[in-house]
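Trying the structure run again after the queue cleared.
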Amino acid sequence: MSYPYPGPPPGGTTPPVIGWDVAVSVCLLVVSFLGCSMVTLAGLFLFAFADYCPPETCHPDRAVTWLGLGLALSAVALVIGSVAVTVSVTRRRISWPVAVIVTVVCVIGCGAGIVGEFTSLS
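Done. Tokens:
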């Protein structure tokens, strides 16, 4: 007499979602998004209200390019990082290192953009 395969054990085999990991990841992504938004506004106001711009060293086109490149890098990092964190959470894996990497890339990108804009306008 053969017995049928009983299937997976009761209670499921997937591990539970790690609450603190999800909270840390979401907080880091939100802080990254808000930081990039603040840098965008700061760059806009820096560009709009630049009082003195000497013609020899002032390059408005470079300023817009630097800020745009920095923010584009940050936006791409945020989108890819959000997808990676979502995939990690749904697979029940640790996701906070991805969020930390995204935050660091956003800080570098936004910092480079605002510094490039500032040096192009001075």
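The helical segments are 19-48, 60-90, 96-121. Worth checking whether this holds up in the mutant runs.
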